[in-house]
Amino acid sequence: MPVPPRLRPARLLRAVDLAGTGIFALQGGATAAAAGLDVFGVLVIAFVTAVGGGIVRDVLLGATPPAVFRDVAYPLTAFGGGLVVVAIFRLVQAIPPSVLLPLDAAALALFAVVGAAKAVDHRTELATGGSLRMSWLLAALLGTVSAVGGGVMRDLLLGGVPLILRSDVYAVAALAGAAVTAVGLRTGRSRALVLAAGALVCFVIRMLALWQGWNLPRVAP
Amino acid sequence: MPVPPRLRPARLLRAVDLAGTGIFALQGGATAAAAGLDVFGVLVIAFVTAVGGGIVRDVLLGATPPAVFRDVAYPLTAFGGGLVVVAIFRLVQAIPPSVLLPLDAAALALFAVVGAAKAVDHRTELATGGSLRMSWLLAALLGTVSAVGGGVMRDLLLGGVPLILRSDVYAVAALAGAAVTAVGLRTGRSRALVLAAGALVCFVIRMLALWQGWNLPRVAP
Amino acid sequence: MPVPPRLRPARLLRAVDLAGTGIFALQGGATAAAAGLDVFGVLVIAFVTAVGGGIVRDVLLGATPPAVFRDVAYPLTAFGGGLVVVAIFRLVQAIPPSVLLPLDAAALALFAVVGAAKAVDHRTELATGGSLRMSWLLAALLGTVSAVGGGVMRDLLLGGVPLILRSDVYAVAALAGAAVTAVGLRTGRSRALVLAAGALVCFVIRMLALWQGWNLPRVAP
């Protein structure tokens, strides 16, 4: 019996990916609004936060135009998140961290896992014939870039040092989840299982870091 | 009777595109000089302001190397604008806003329209055969990136928050012109007419915003 | 008699390229540590400083995924440099400028020359058949971007105006070396000779500038 269309893995993955896009757009838009930006600035920052990481990933893979520019659902979701901030900023601002932070960790986990999977799947056609696959280490790095790249752009555009360079275990959680995904897929395990395990690793590390106040040590004394 | 070469649309478009490049180079170079940069820094900022947006557009389209790296007239024009600033900074600084701002608005309009047209024309070859065209919304976004991307890079390199995120209706004017262009071309209207209409829409909105002191409202109270 | 594998030019070039990568990683990591970043931040900045310029060059050439994502030795070297900083920051910080600055100038020279050579070698396949080669001026610009791009990203991420826009003759030395390389290769001289001459020009200009305290004049009085 065929799987009905709406339950096929690609559709499910896209739906979850869009959910992550919406969460990051809300979060980026709220940061921009709090920084005093106008309506247009809030929409731009929401968009960049939500899709910037994926754009960098696709440009680095050579998969251009990036997925965001091929499927209009992504920009609509990103701008939709920004418009929600514009319309009901007070309500968005009132969402307690106990709701926001797990949502953000979930979006981070998802983007890390999806990004790593895209990098593992990518094959570069060589001029000599044949194709080249990326090492799992580099696929894990690209997954991390997918997950944190939008936030880095948000912070640069708002004039600050990117939070991930200063704050608690965030990109490290993404890297761990992306690495589990890349290694798992390369060793031929079940795709659904690997993606779920990678996302869980990222989410759990991030939530533990928040709960326990983990911080990496500074290098200079 | 054939159109003489110098009047052909592509040549005309390139000439106007180069004029926009020169204006943005002058404007970027003057900003850099006023910020205390040395000769080299002024040339770099002039170059980045003039061609940065087009480079990002072409990288996102996958049209690499970007047009700027294929036609040496673009970098020569951009560096030429920077050298004019170096040579006669006082004269450039003395140009009154009543001349500079309409010139800048004209360059903005041109870049938005040309960028949107390039995005509309672009076809992505698919591995499955056939090709994909970009939705008009995404083509309009890429046109806007072409128009404002160089200025964003200028502001980031000079250490500030990009002006377009804080100031009056600027990127919105570019977006309006790019959207008119993308929709017009997709619905099959006369190319010359569509480009002229798109540029006019952008230019008029920008000049009205300057004249009337339009500003978008802030989101946070 | 065949040249033994370890002495072949491509292997030699890669070895020297990796040496430059390591130097820039050490230098970037030490800057990040001194700025108070944590272990992860130091690794990120070391990585970006070491490979950022090459990534931008390859993206602009359309040679994606960039070389850094094809050969795992590059990221390992870059992260290795960062780990050295983490492990023995005090020792790294104690290296006197009389050692560090010539090493940095050597890495700059190497990256400028390798980057320009890659740009000169690159051919863009045209849809009409045939291929396009890049003008020597644009190849020289791409070589300069290779050499200084990582440092620009380091400074932007650490929240400052890029040093090359403010300080003494640095990018100009890279541009001179890259231009010598591009012109030399285009006029068909011996490859080894051209690369050596380009690197020497860059290194000597940079060291003379440091020794004599050369600075370019500011444009604004």
Largest interface: A-B, 30 and 30 residues
Number of H/I helices of chain A = 8
Strand content of chain A: under 5%
Helical content of chain A (DSSP H or I, runs of 4+): over 70%
The largest sheet of chain A, given as strand count, sense and whether it forms a barrel, is: 2 strands, antiparallel
**Shape, principal axes of CA atoms of chain A:** globular
Kindly provide the radius of gyration of chain A, computed on alpha-carbon positions and rounded to a whole number of angstroms: 18 Å
Alpha carbon gap, first and last residue of chain A: 64 Å
Number of domains of chain A: 1
Spatial strand arrangement across the major sheet of chain A: 1-2
Helix/strand-derived category of chain A reads mainly alpha
Unreliably modeled segments of chain A: none
DSSP strand tally of chain A? 2
Helix and strand string of chain A, N-terminal first? HHHHHEEHHH
Oligomeric state of the chains present here:
homotrimer
Mean pLDDT of chain A: 86
Secondary structure blueprint with pairings:
The structure is a homotrimer of 221-residue chains.
Chain A: H1 9-34, H2 39-61, H3 73-87, H4 89-94, H5 97-121, E1 123-125, E2 131-133, H6 136-157, H7 171-186, H8 191-212
Antiparallel strand pairs in A: 1-2
Helix pairs in contact in A: 1-2, 1-3, 1-5, 2-3, 2-6, 5-6, 5-7, 5-8, 6-7, 7-8
